[in-house]
Amino acid sequence: MTKLALGTHPFLLGFEQLERLVERTAKSGNEGYPPYNIEQTSENSYRITLAVAGFAEDDLSITVEDNALVIRGRQADDSEGRVFLHRGIAARQFQRSFVLADGVDVGEAIMENGLLHVDLTRAIPERIVQTINIKKG
């Protein structure tokens, strides 16, 4: 029996991009920083929360690029003229990407107590029934 790839299954017409999407997600390079939560806040809405302690709003950028939510953080190095006996909190930059399904929109972003909350909503597509006429050949 021949094993079919998901995107080439005969009942999944037009889903060839799904395999590329899965590969892109696997290669997104997200390490473990910063830690994050994803929660479902209602039937059609979600919230991504990133722990960004030490970052100001101006240190963060949120963009949507090629159906991916990309959150970047870059802190300015303010250590000039300071003498650290121990430095466990480093100014560290990051990039965290989340692939968005079609119909998912990014809402507002809120900073609260060192946490960045980004709200997402999923639009419910209208159910369409289309009748196709059969012509005599």
TrEMBL record:
UniProt keyword list: Stress response
Superkingdom in the source lineage: Bacteria
Protein name: HSP20 family molecular chaperone IbpA
Family recorded in the similarity comment: Belongs to the small heat shock protein (HSP20) family.
UniProt-listed SUPFAM superfamilies: HSP20-like chaperones (SSF49764)
PANTHER family: PTHR47062, SMALL HEAT SHOCK PROTEIN IBPA
Chain ranges of the SHSP domain: 27-137
